[in-house]
Specification:
The complex is a heterodimer of chains A (337) and B (338). Helix content of chain A is 35%, strand content 18%. Chain A is of the alpha/beta class. Chain A has 2 domains: 199 residues, Rossmann fold (3-Layer(aba) Sandwich), CATH 3.40.50; 124 residues, Rossmann fold (3-Layer(aba) Sandwich), CATH 3.40.50.920. A 7-stranded mixed β-sheet of chain A has the order 3-2-4-5-7-6-12, with helices on both faces. In chain A, strands 9-11-10-13-14 form a 5-stranded mixed β-sheet, sandwiched between helices. In chain A, helix 9 crosses helix 10. With 338 residues, chain B is α/β, with parallel strands linked by helices. Chain B has one domain: Rossmann fold, CATH 3.40.50.970. Chain B is 42% helix and 9% strand. Chain B contains 11 helices and 7 strands. In chain B, helix 1 packs across helix 2, helix 1 packs antiparallel against helix 10 and helix 2 packs across helix 8. The radius of gyration of chain B is 19 Å and the shape is globular. The chains are: A alpha/beta (337), B alpha/beta (338). At the A-B interface, helix 3 of A face loops of B.
């Protein structure tokens, strides 16, 4: 099996689905000729032609709106929003049209589209190229929200997303495109080739949406994470020596509450991580779910380690980012509580 | 046809005679454009050295646009633009030290390190940013025009955006409102032919952006954006139109960026020959330089002195941007809400 990057895994999934199903069309800003600013669609236009992989104008509302129309009439659009920070003009179409089409047509029409977008910080993008807007989507009924943490999952989850008959928001942590990231920004970049989850089969495989993965088994505390923060959690567990059980959610909606519940009932402690801002972040939902399901098993208050309630700063990116030191402190605190 | 010369305006209005500059105008334009170019070259170097992180979009090649437009504005007029904003700030008179220090994320940066390359502002110079979201500034610039009309202050707002941003829906919502309410706004489309890696012809059904306001009855003009005199002449007409209460005006500046879209642009979407041809035949600074020498406005030695003073200014900015301290960690929490 080849060891590949997250970019290659994403491209592989799209390529495979385009080959299997001629209803799959791929488009977005700089997606066709240029191959995507992060190269996720590189070569697809050459392989499948300009009617199946093409550039759009810089018009996010239009990109998503047109995708919904295509989807309602039998196509399976996979569109890219160049940065998750650019999605807000399309939010109206996503919320009012894509997410609700099935419900208001009593199931007659669906929106089988996948909206891919790079998210998260770590590349000094400042406030308009670093955000993690997942909670904007998990709050909307009718959407599924996926966020992989490694190449293997990225391919399997993206295939499931494309095959899904409902709209899927597919968030790609851009800091993970070329390698896992522990949050130690001052250390050299580790390539994916050294990570076991970069081993990706060439052939088709799907990872069911709504199934979390346990990245590290442990007995002391449950850490719930997704995307980049999975790797930060692993680093923090290693550095503190705390026997954490690390859950990688993989999909936020549908949420694998069974895996969460089983783990917290076992450990009695829970720390929730995300890079997005804290207040009304997805961690708040997770925290509520945990206390509803596991209240009598909890030995300590649930803690969240998140981005601060500030815009993503330029110069102070690493003061904002919830790195392994902050996660480590929370692990210790929850153990001592 | 991406290879067609962008510098040649098509519409008849743009053929209106371009008046020669006076000696002072030519020398001022030369100095300003050179300052922007040397500043951007330095920023590119510092990026390469790892002193600037993240996003950095250089303005090299497009200098005549902001310098020519600025010559038409009076104090109180506002300027707003997108993310390729360094040139606009320098042309507005913002201190190069503060711009460079924002690029390096230092305390003395115009946004105290919070914004970075794409997000800087100056109340004093009436510069309203620096916006990282493509096209978003067009609506804001329209609002500035509304405020001008509301306050009856006689000011004009200039909203710059690129050929890529011109396809955002909110641009047309803004055009409609600006025309409906006769707002004093000059929309300047900096058509540098590429929206990142996508050529105009691959993203735009109507590639003559000066006509994009026709359905709202907004007049437009295509301008040779590599000739600072043409920019200034067209800018004067547009600004007067807006200031006189006639409503908005669209100027399409046919320009060209020599460098990549950002610092991580493999530039596979155009040929090196195309870039070289623009540099050789249409460079805005070379055009002024030859004119100055031909007209005898200055000697080679005089120009060398200008070059040296510009280099000193840029070096001063670069030194400041490297020695100024980084912001205190407490700054992370300031300026969010009051």
């Amino acid at each position: 099996m080849a060891r590949i990057t997250m970019i290659e895994a994403i491209r592989d999934a799209i390529d495979l689905m385009m080959a299997r199903d001629d209803k799959v069309v791929v488009f977005g800003e700089d997606v066709g000729y240029f191959g995507g600013v992060f190269r996720c669609t590189d070569g697809l236009q050459r392989k499948y032609g300009r009617t199946r992989c093409f550039d759009t104008p810089i018009s996010e509302t239009g990109i998503v709106g047109v995708a919904i129309g295509m989807g309602a009439y039998g196509l399976r659009p996979v569109c890219e929003i160049q940065f998750a920070d650019y999605v807000y003009p399309a939010y109206d179409q996503i919320v009012s049209e894509a997410a609700r089409l099935r419900y208001r047509s009593a199931g007659e029409f669906t929106s089988p589209l996948t909206i891919r977008m790079p998210c998260g910080g770590g590349i000094f993008g400042g406030q308009t190229h670093s955000q993690s807007p997942e909670a904007c989507f998990t709050h909307v009924s009718g959407l599924k929200t996926v966020i992989p943490s490694n190449p293997y999952d990225a391919k399997g989850l993206l295939i499931s997303a494309i095959e899904d008959d409902d709209p899927v928001i597919f968030l790609e942590p851009k800091r993970l495109y070329n390698g896992p990231f522990s949050g130690h920004h001052d250390q050299p970049v580790v390539p994916w080739s050294r990570h076991p989850l970069s081993e990706v089969p060439d052939e088709y495989y799907a990872i069911e949406l709504g199934k979390a993965a346990i990245r590290r088994e442990g007995a002391a505390v449950t850490v719930i994470a997704y995307g980049t923060m999975v790797h930060v959690a692993e680093a923090a567990a290693a550095e503190t020596g705390i026997d954490a059980e690390i859950i990688d959610l993989r999909t936020l909606i549908p949420l694998d509450t069974d895996t969460i519940e089983q783990s917290v009932r076992k450990t009695g402690r829970c720390v929730i991580l995300h890079e997005a801002t804290r207040t009304s972040g997805f961690g708040a939902e997770l925290s509520a779910q945990v206390q509803e399901r596991c209240f009598h098993h909890l030995e300590a208050p649930i803690l969240r380690v998140t981005g601060w309630d500030t815009p993503y700063p330029h110069a102070q990116e690493w003061d904002y980012f919830p790195g392994p030191a902050r996660v480590g402190r929370a692990l210790k605190a929850v153990m001592e509580a | 046809m991406a290879a067609k010369s962008a510098a040649k305006p098509k519409s008849s209005e743009a053929q209106a005679a371009v008046a020669e500059f006076t000696k002072d105008q030519d020398l001022a334009a030369y100095r300003e454009m050179l300052y922007i170019r040397r500043f951007e070259e330095k920023a590119g170097q510092m990026y390469g050295m790892g002193l600037i992180g993240g996003f950095c979009h250089l303005y090299i090649g497009q200098e005549a646009v902001v310098v020519g437009m600025q010559m038409c504005l009076t104090p109180g007029d506002q300027v707003i633009t997108g993310y390729r904003d360094h040139g606009h700030m320098l042309a507005c008179g913002m201190d190069g030290k503060g711009v460079m220090a924002e690029l390096t994320g230092r305390r003395g940066g115009f946004s105290r390190g919070k914004g970075g390359s794409m997000h800087m502002f100056s109340v004093e110079k009436q510069f309203f940013g620096g916006h990282g979201i493509v096209g978003a500034q067009v609506s804001l610039g329209t609002g500035l025009g509304f405020a001008n009309r509301y306050k009856k202050n006689g000011n004009v707002s200039v909203a710059y955006f690129g050929d890529g941003a011109a396809n955002q829906g909110q641009v047309y919502e803004s055009f409609n409102m600006a025309a409906l309410w006769k707002l004093p706004v000059v929309y300047v489309v900096e058509n540098n032919r590429y929206a990142m890696g996508t050529a105009v012809t691959r993203s735009s059904a109507q590639t003559d952006f000066s006509k994009r306001g026709l359905s709202f009855n907004i007049p437009g003009e295509q301008v040779d954006g590599m000739d600072v005199r043409a920019v200034q002449a067209a800018g004067q007409r547009a600004v007067e139109h807006a200031r006189s209460g006639e409503g908005p005006f669209i100027l399409e500046m046919m320009t060209y960026r020599y460098r990549g879209h950002s610092m991580s642009d493999p530039a596979k979407y155009r040929s090196k020959d195309e870039v070289q041809k623009m540099r050789n035949e249409h460079d805005p600074i070379e055009q002024v330089r030859s004119r100055i020498l031909a007209a005898g406005f200055a000697t080679e030695d005089d120009l060398k002195k200008i070059d040296a003073s510009v280099r000193d200014l840029v070096q001063e900015a670069a030194d400041f941007a490297q020695t100024d301290p980084e912001p205190d960690v407490a700054e992370l929490w300031t300026d969010i809400v009051k």
